[in-house]
Automatic annotation (TrEMBL):
One Gene Ontology term, aspect cellular component: chloroplast
NCBIfam families according to UniProt: PPR
PPR repeats, residue ranges: 148-182, 218-252, 351-385, 587-621
Family: Belongs to the PPR family. PCMP-H subfamily.
Entry keywords, A to Z: Repeat
InterPro entries reported in the protein's UniProt record: DYW_dom (IPR032867), E_motif (IPR046848), PPR_At4g14850-like_plant (IPR046960), PPR_rpt (IPR002885), TPR-like_helical_dom_sf (IPR011990)
The encoding gene: LOC110797148
Protein name: Pentatricopeptide repeat-containing protein At5g03800
Species assigned in the record: Spinacia oleracea (Spinach)
Length: 893
């Protein structure tokens, strides 16, 4: 027999000749959809039809162990033949049950000597298929002189299950050419083939044929149709078929429940489950509970998920593999690392999905070392596992670890998918190393992955993060005519915003809309809304919010979170809460957006109220949540340091989150703000890893609240002794030296910055007027109305001086004359932006200015006088939060 399988090359033709019903949609006018796929069939398959020596009859009759011919006398009676016939059927069933290939082939040899009988040959085909011998089954099928519908159904089903979906479709066409009418099992096999390759249009035609022949009343056929529509993402058709079914089985309910879960309509899944129990009295099986638990994980329904877990325990499904795997995913989202680990250890059977889920859970909880330990212990790995580890390393900012793992994958020839490449590109983005990004870029281009739209968009994003904006722009403009462009627009727009060019991002967005080259889907809308939040562009953000409401995209949780964040950054918490309450589901990011909004407004008590509500909703906090909540204790109306200590020291035990540098910096800043400077310094010295300079800097900034303390001087000396790695540290050291009068040393530090090519982002302030961003630098005269702005500012300064304003020249860290220091102070970027706002904004409306660095003390003091003199509210958002000046007072005090 042939050792490899080569199905026949069939010439396809239309199989329906009469008009179908109105639903499903009408048939296509021709069979072009079939003909276009016939080219993919094996060209060598025709050899089966032309070479008689490979027919099953010829092969079996020439086998050395072929049984001898029956005796030519009356002893071989009709009764003996019937007995032999039934014995053959029984032996075929036994061969399939006990996986005995030799027995099946021996029976095949015996059957060849008997008269041809379709029932017996069909049984032989079925036995071979159950044994996984598709080639043998196909040879038997080709040897049948007049195959019937059962013959065709069996071999079509075998082809569909073995990855030969197009050949299964071709055999169905051939069956129709011979005038053989399919039965319900034929339709099930054919629809399974369509489902596996996502052939929706062909499935719609078959749906029409099913309706015409009256097989839609078959539960099996209806289930197969729902499976096809679900696989192709056509939920409306799934629900319509389901609603029209006169009778349903448990598979019907499972299909429709899993379909709505896949479309993230979780409430509907729970409603269907209740209907299943109420209407058909089905109690559910392991598939039902797996889908429901996944719905609970997707909707972060912690309480309901635990109830369904308890129900599964009661029903005896707790040890079922698929249920346990779903529970791992659920408790990853709505539980703790301890619960997930205990569940995994209790599982009697574990597969690669279980191990991968456990690794993903550890990565989600930030327990990278434990995740890698489990990865090494895995008895079996596949590309999905490697991709999960890569993605986990990236989500935990372990760019070097991801890069090392990727090199190992290449070395051991692990299959590389688009997810692999997307993750390693993200790792390069995390590292921000230009040279490494160029090497990975070259690897992707060399192996031909660049044609993938998602990967190319990730490459654009990587270039924007690695200082390669010119390369990003070049890639973007080279692919302008790509049909799948929105994701690339998103990458380049976000890149502009990331590189402190939000105005360019908005210009590009508007140009894309005016040229009708940009489709504003949920991905693009998310990016643009994020930029509106960065700019404080409330009006534009509100317009994008309206667009998302009209288009129905707001129910996307990522976009909804972006809108909440935008309103929070614009200081409109009322709008932020309104959007939050509208979202059908919330994740940790949703809560983080609210918390960060109240934190920007320096409303510590409101942050703690949101934190309490989040815990009541059984929402698991992520590391960012804890950083924000710890930071909020700096802004509470009363000293709540004891509560902050309890939260910080219980993080690992309660939430499975190990404190990072950011957590320590937040905790130290709280201790420093409330006067516990020595304790904060002691905490830093006991950190189990080398503390980053950001932690020391947090303590030093807190010392500004307690100028009489000696801790500040010690911390300043310590920072001076450290090797600065980022521009902000260089500037901090230079400013400390300047403030102490050591001008020469300060200049040496700045000279070192220049020699190393380190540049700080200059102080910049902007205001939005008439849907345009007006930006200013210190002593900036590039604005078209600069003469009016400077004239107005000079008048404003004189009025403030009369009211008692005294310029604080200690904030001028340059060795110049006192009068020149005042000149430096008077023309800071924030003062220019506020003056422009006073000149252009209608009376009664607040002046809203955004600044990319901290507001200096002199500007802070100046704006108090401005608000008192002009009777106008001045709102300035800097990197620490909002400062709302009104009647000579600031909200931050």
């Amino acid at each position: 027999m042939a050792s490899t399988f080569s199905p026949p090359q069939l010439f396809l033709s239309p199989f329906l000749h009469s008009p179908p019903f109105q639903f499903p949609p009408k048939l296509l006018p021709s069979s072009s959809i079939f003909l276009s796929k016939s080219n993919s069939f094996s060209t060598s398959a025709a050899h089966f039809l032309t070479n008689p020596r490979i027919s099953p009859v010829f092969q079996q009759s020439h086998l050395p162990f072929s049984p001898s011919s029956p005796p030519e006398d009356d002893s071989f009676s009709h009764e003996n033949a019937q007995t032999l016939y039934h014995k053959c059927l029984e032996l075929l069933r036994l061969s399939a049950r006990y996986a005995d290939v030799e027995l099946a082939r021996a029976v095949h040899c015996l059957i060849v000597k008997l008269d041809e009988d379709n029932y017996l040959l069909n049984s032989l085909i079925t036995a071979y298929l159950k044994l996984g011998l598709l080639n043998d089954a196909y040879n038997v099928f080709m040897g049948i002189s007049n195959p019937d519908v059962v013959s065709y159904t069996a071999i079509i089903s075998g082809f569909a299950k073995s990855g030969y979906e197009l050949d299964a479709i071709g055999l169905f066409m051939k069956m129709r050419e011979k005038g053989i009418e399919p039965n319900e099992f034929t339709f099930v096999a054919f629809l399974a083939a369509c489902s596996r390759i996502g052939e929706l249009q062909l499935g719609i035609q078959i749906h029409s044929f099913v309706v015409k022949l009256g097989y839609l009343f078959s539960v099996y056929v209806a289930n197969a149709l729902m499976g096809l529509y679900s696989k192709c993402g056509v939920l409306d058709d799934v629900l319509q078929v389901f609603d029209e079914m006169p009778k349903r089985d448990i598979a019907s309910w499972n299909t429709v429940i899993s379909s709505v879960v896949n479309e993230q309509i979780y409430d509907r899944a729970f409603e269907l489950f209740h209907d299943m129990v109420r209407i058909d009295r089905f109690r559910g099986n392991h598939i039902t509970f797996s889908s429901l638990i996944s719905a609970c994980a997707g909707s972060c329904a912690g309480v309901l998920g635990r109830e369904i877990h308890a129900h599964a325990l009661k029903m005896g499904f707790d040890n079922h593999l698929s249920v346990s795997n779903s529970l791992i995913g659920f408790y990853t989202q709505c539980g703790t690392a301890k619960i997930v680990q205990a569940l995994f250890q209790r599982m009697p059977i574990k597969d690669v999905i279980s191990w991968t889920g456990m690794i993903t859970a550890f990565m989600e909880f930030g327990m990278v070392e434990l995740a890698l330990e489990y990865f090494k212990k895995m008895p079996e790995r596949n590309s999905v596992t490697f991709n999960a580890v890569l993605a986990g390393l990236c989500s935990n900012s372990e760019g070097l670890g991801a890069l090392s793992l990727f090199c190992e994958m290449v070395k051991h020839r692990v299959e590389l998918t688009e997810y692999t490449l997307t993750s390693i590109i993200s790792a390069c983005s995390l590292l921000g190393e230009k040279n490494i990004s160029e090497q990975i870029h070259g690897f992707v281009v060399k192996f031909g992955f660049r044609s993938n739209v998602c990967i190319e968009a990730a490459l654009v994003d990587m270039c924007t993060r690695c200082g390669r904006m010119s390369d990003a722009q070049k890639m973007f403009h080279q692919s302008q005519h790509d049909q799948n462009l929105p994701i690339k627009w998103t990458s380049i727009i976000s890149g502009y915003a990331r590189n402190a060019q939000p105005e360019e991002a908005m210009v590009l967005f508007r140009w894309g809309q005016s040229e009708e080259a940009l489709v504003v889907d949920e991905v693009v809308a998310t990016a643009v809304v994020g930029i509106c939040g960065t700019l404080g562009f409330y009006e534009m953000g509100e317009q994008m919010h309206c667009h998302t409401l009209k288009s129905g995209h707001l129910y996307d949780v990522t976009l909804g979170n972006a809108v909440i964040s935008m309103y929070s950054k614009c200081g409109s918490m009322e709008d932020a809460w309104r959007v939050f309450d509208m979202l059908p589901i919330h994740d940790a990011v949703s809560w983080n957006c609210l918390i960060s909004g109240h934190l920007l407004l320096m409303q510590g008590d409101e942050v703690l109220a949101v934190w309490s509500r989040m815990k009541k909703a059984n929402m698991k906090p992520d590391p960012v949540t804890l950083i924000l909540v710890i930071s909020s204790y700096r802004h509470t109306k009363s000293n709540m340091v004891d509560d902050c200590r309890r939260l910080f020291f219980s993080m690992t035990r309660e939430y499975g989150v190990k404190p990072t540098s950011d957590h320590y910096a937040s905790f130290v800043s709280v201790l420093g703000k409330w006067g516990f400077l020595e304790e904060a310094e002691d905490i830093i010295t006991k950190i189990p890893f080398e503390p980053k300079i950001s932690i020391w800097r947090a303590l030093l900034q807190s010392c500004n609240f307690h100028p009489e303390s000696t801790v500040g001087k010690r911390i300043a000396k310590h920072i001076l002794g450290m090797q600065p790695e980022d521009p902000s540290t260089f500037i901090l050291i230079s400013n400390l030296l300047s403030a102490s009068g050591r001008w020469h040393c300060s200049e040496l530090v700045r000279e070192e910055m220049r020699s190393k090519g380190v540049r700080k982002h200059p102080a910049r302030s902007w205001i939005v007027h008439q849907n345009k961003v007006h930006a200013f630098y210190t002593r900036d005269k590039t604005h078209s109305q600069s003469k009016d702005i400077y004239s107005g500012l000079e008048i404003l300064i004189l009025e403030c001086l009369k009211a008692g304003y005294v310029p604080d020249t200690s904030f001028v860290l340059h060795e110049v004359e006192e009068q020149q220091k005042k000149e430096f102070l008077f023309y800071h970027s924030a003062k220019l932006a506020v003056t422009y706002g006073l000149l252009t904004t209608k009376q009664g409306r607040p002046i809203r200015v955004t600044k990319n660095v901290l507001l200096c003390g002199d500007c802070h003091n100046f704006f108090k006088y401005v608000s008192r003199i002009t009777k106008r509210e001045v709102c300035v958002r800097d990197t620490s939060g909002f400062h709302s000046f009104s009647n000579g007072e600031c909200s931050c005090e």
